[in-house]
Amino acid sequence: MVKSTIVVRASDALPLAATVDDEQTETTLQEHKQQAKLIFRRITGNAEPRCSIESGQYTLHYLIADNVVYLVITDKSYPRKLAFSYLDELSKEFATSYGAKVEAVRKPYAFVGFDTFMSKTTRLYQDTRTAGANGGAMDKLNDELQDVTRIMTKNMEELLWRGDSLDRMSHLSTSLRSESEKYRKAARNINIQAMLRQYAPIGGVLFIIILLIWWRFS
What we know:
Blueprint: E1 2-9, E2 15-18, H1 23-28, H2 30-42, E3 50-55, E4 58-65, E5 68-75, H3 80-98, H4 115-125, H5 136-144, E6 152-155, H6 156-160, H7 170-217
Parallel strand pairs: 3-6
Antiparallel strand pairs: 1-2, 1-5, 3-4, 4-5
């Protein structure tokens, strides 16, 4: 089920809004909320826009849109499709209500009013076992869920102990393309040199013969 949600500004990790969690939830998720802060610090301009980070019995899902990070902590068994559909709902509403003000705010939790929408949306997504009670609206939602097979999944240990980043994997493919291009050029040059070594003697002989014929009949 959905446990807790926080919205921060991506450029400096300034908290913009968060769900109001009860004391038990705060105690249970204390470590994971600290991990969320770590994630916010690791986010750069080249970070994956959507990522799921597994941590013990919970998973931290985040979505980046328009310099805002939306992060939700859920049970590990909670479907990723629902988690990211939930984050999409939040991002659309937040952009509509507060998007133009995000860059100007200086104090934390400037948009506490967003909690009302988050609470209402959380109830809709709260538990997959009771989702059917929401009737046609939830059925429609399930029909519209996005494909999350390409969303990056990481483990919190990678971030904590290995110093792993949240950068996109595209830089790797770009590097591979660059290296491939270098190898293609090198191979082409080698082929040209091989052809020159193979046919240069023949060309030289033909050139001499042509010169002799020209000298004889000139």
